[in-house]
Amino acid sequence: MKQPRNYPKVASDMFFLQGTWASGFLGVMLIVQIIKMITSYFNGNEVNTFFTATFIASNIFMLVIGIISAVGFIPHYVSNGITRKDYFKGTIIGTIGLALVLPIISAVITGAIQLVINLFNLLINLESFENPLHEADNHIVADIITSVIFTPYIELSSNWIAAILVFAINIFTYYVVGWLIGAAFSRFGVIVGLLFIILGFIVVQVEDILLSISLGLNVPGFVDEIEIPIVISIVAILLILSICLWLIRQLTKRMIVKF
């Protein structure tokens, strides 16, 4: 008898559960943004837009919930009769949805904030965000460290579709890396887990560089002369993410689950 497909249910569960966490994350970010804008109003300081602030902070947020996904959810689903395959497929689908919704909500909130500022003529200085990689002295170590901090970013006001897509690709990559690291720690322990942290770092850096080169954004000095069409970069990123997801599948399908 063929087993029913449970991954759509897993996908909706993961989307809404992680979406609840994302709502809390956005709520905290909004409170911080309001405090910064009040300070800007009275002191004249420049402040990043909500979209920019969320873009910067969401990388760590998605990395953390990716790790939680690997460690915390498999026992729950397996104990309730859900196969590891359905858990895997459902998590991917649910997370893709979250990776798209989070930047869209951030963009809407940013637009609403800008509308209020314009409507009441508030003297709040919203600054543009620029990746300062080219300001480094072409020192490879400095370039690498700076590229970790500043990931590819497009201003919402310049091209909102591209801005949202870059945001989504970036945070989905961080989620997959977190999921991979968490699965490695759960399956093999600390030593191998540390090696997968290095692998995750490499994946993030390659994704950042590919996007930055193709979009004409600032890049580390050691790849400054390279040109890659956007189609090639997207295909390469999808291939890298597919390999990471394949590794996650291999790590989780034989993982010992303790109830």
Automatic annotation (TrEMBL):
The keyword Transmembrane is assigned to this record: yes
Entry keywords, A to Z: Membrane, Transmembrane, Transmembrane helix
Transmembrane segments: 21-42, 54-78, 90-117, 160-181, 188-206, 226-248
Domain of life: Bacteria
Protein name as annotated: Uncharacterized protein
